[in-house]
Design brief:
about 200 residues; mainly alpha; TIM Barrel; 3-stranded parallel β-sheet; 10 helices; about 10% strand; globular
């Protein structure tokens, strides 16, 4: 259960920030999932403090702050994290992605989209769009899929309705609710290839 608390993510993140990994591999991207994002602002602040105090006699890079490495190479994922969302500017909106964690017990499936609406209720649309889609596309180099969910409100493709399928033609959601694995795989393939059924 400690994995779900972010404690192992914190340790791994600190180890990476003080290691030569990101200096040797500047294009490497690491995403921490399953542990929320609320811990990130503290870790970044503390890592920079430790770096400033000890950079001249430890085997760490003396001119690049850990926070700079974090912003360039690391992202954090969350399902539900009120503090993390409120402190998103300290983490960096470009370094945050929302995850639904389907099919694990930590998720809100089948109401993931409705729960996302609640989580992001007070967050500006452009920031939400980054956290639920654009950051993931950039970090993982996912192409535009050309897919628009039938459950999305017009003009705000990330703003869902109440999580229910809009109609019987929303086969991707229907397939997931009824456990149609073949349809799910086909739909997910369509999302990443851009083909339309």
């Amino acid at each position: 259960m400690t994995t779900l608390m972010g404690t192992t993510s914190m340790m791994a993140c600190a180890d990476l920030l003080f290691s030569p990994v990101f200096h040797k591999h500047p294009n490497l991207k690491v995403a921490f999932s399953e542990g929320g994002i609320g811990w990130i602002p503290y870790l970044i602040e503390r890592a920079d403090y430790v770096w400033r105090k000890h950079k001249y006699y430890q085997n760490i890079h003396p001119t690049v702050q850990p926070s700079d490495l974090f912003r360039r190479n690391i992202s954090g994922c969350f399902i539900e994290d009120d503090f993390g969302v409120k402190s998103r500017y300290e983490t960096g909106v470009d370094n945050i992605t929302w995850e639904c964690d389907y099919p694990h017990s930590d998720s809100f499936w089948p109401k993931s989209r409705a729960r996302a609406e609640e989580v992001f209720a007070d967050v500006p649309d452009d920031e939400v769009h980054k956290m639920v889609e654009l950051n993931t596309r950039r970090i993982y180099n996912f192409p535009e899929a050309g897919y628009t969910a039938h459950t999305a409100d017009a003009g705000n493709p990330w703003r869902p309705n109440n999580g229910e399928p809009a109609d019987a033609s929303d086969t991707w959601l229907q397939g997931q609710q009824h456990g149609d694995t073949a349809e799910i795989k086909k739909s997910l393939g369509d999302l990443f290839t851009g083909s339309k059924a």
